[in-house]
Amino acid sequence: MMSDDILVQEVKSLTDKMVSARTSVERRFVGQHDVVEQVLAAILSGGHALLVGQPGLGKTMLVDTLATVMGLDSQRIQFTPDLMPADILGSEVLDTMPDGSRAFRFIEGPVFTQLLMADEINRASPRTQSALLQAMQEREVTVSGQHRALGRPFHVLATQNPIEQEGTYPLPEAQLDRFLLQVDVGYPDRDTEREILLATTGVEQGAAHAAFTPDELIAAQRLIRQMPVGETVVEAILDLVRLCRPEAPEAAGFVRDALLWGPGPRAAQALMLVTRARAVLNGRFAPTVDDVAAMAAPVLRHRMALSFAARARGDSVDGIIAQLVDDRFGGRHAA
Q1: Is residue 108 domain-resident?
Q2: Counting CB atoms within 10 angstroms of each CB, which of 62, 164, 193, 233 has the fewest?
Q3: Span 235-257, mean pLDDT?
Q4: Mean pLDDT of the chain
């Protein structure tokens, strides 16, 4: 562990670099401040993010821009119903040598990279989606009984169209839980859409520049884990996650009625990390309960399931999270 003075200097330096990174991203991805902040927080925390929104909102362009800004090698997979696990992981082929002998050779799939863009991930079958489970959790894959390490760092940024659209499959709960954040990308307001029109339909468009190298990003992720977290913030994280579990003794009546299940300990771990990352993104040296409130919805919304009665009433997971945040934090709203 580094001394407090050195830690402060390192965090300040990281904040400056993140300001440069965010400016570069927002030069191309206009007007979506919260979306950019959440995705950068996921990467800074060493995790994966799922971007959910209608087609045409710039999700793919955002991921492509982030690969450049964070200095990462990237690969893109366009998920389709006929995509197979081998198309992601790679496969072994039988080569014939000049002397007539034969030997198997492994051809790496696109998962062997540092930033994997899984475009429209919910258009592939659950069998194919599950090919990413081991990669996302363990940063390695097993092919033909052999463990093969992935790039360092390794991040999956997946885009998803809403599941009510035709030709999509809901992601398995086990895979959803491996995404640190679910970032909802909504339609821009009128002023933002005007900015987008002016910025993207001219002769020249804003160009992204690299603000990190892979080694610098790994060092930043290590630094995030060394940031101090006050007892008040720890208790706030534990309270909020446990209040979202319908079987927990402290759960409110409306939670027991509205939810089938709630988030596990991985959600608390995710909330602990991204609150630190958000503090850095906003120029602070330690997270506050405001960071917990702001990051509650992206961390929790994909780790909870509504009951049939709640769906029939028109309840939403985000609405339940917002109510719990209001109750716990006295009016601070989830992002």
Answers
A1: no
A2: 164
A3: 92
A4: 89
Same domain (yes/no): 202, 235: no
In a domain, 257, yes or no: yes
Reply yes or no on whether the pLDDT at 107 is more than 80: yes
Ordered alpha helix ranges (H), 131-264: 133-138, 173-176, 190-200, 214-224, 231-243, 253-258
In sign, the C-alpha dihedral spanning 73, 79, 82, 88 is: positive
For residues 187 and 193, what is the distance between their CA atoms, to the nearest angstrom? 9
Q: Please calculate the CA angle 36-41-46 and round it to the nearest 5 degrees.
A: 130
| Distance of alpha carbon 324 from alpha carbon 39, whole angstroms | 23
pTM: 0.90
In degrees, to the nearest 5, what angle opens at C-alpha 175 toward C-alphas 183 and 328? Answer: 50
Which residues on neighbouring strands pair with residue 184, listed in sequence order?
Answer: 52
Q: Whose CA is closest to 317, among 47, 59, 52, 38?
A: 52
Structural domain harbouring 12 = 1-82+114-226
What is the longest distance spanned by two Cα atoms in the chain?
A: 76
The CATH number of the domain holding residue 18 is 3.40.50.300
How many domains are there within the chain? 2
Token pair belonging to 280: 């850095």
- Say if CB 266 and CB 254 are below 8 A apart: no
How confident is the model over 9-55, as pLDDT tens digits?
Answer: 899 999 999 999 998 898 888 778 899 999 999 999 999 999 998 88
Q: What is the pLDDT of residues 198-228, one digit of tens each?
A: 877 776 666 778 899 999 999 999 999 999 9
Instruction: Take residue 141 and report the two structure tokens written for it.
Output: 């894959």
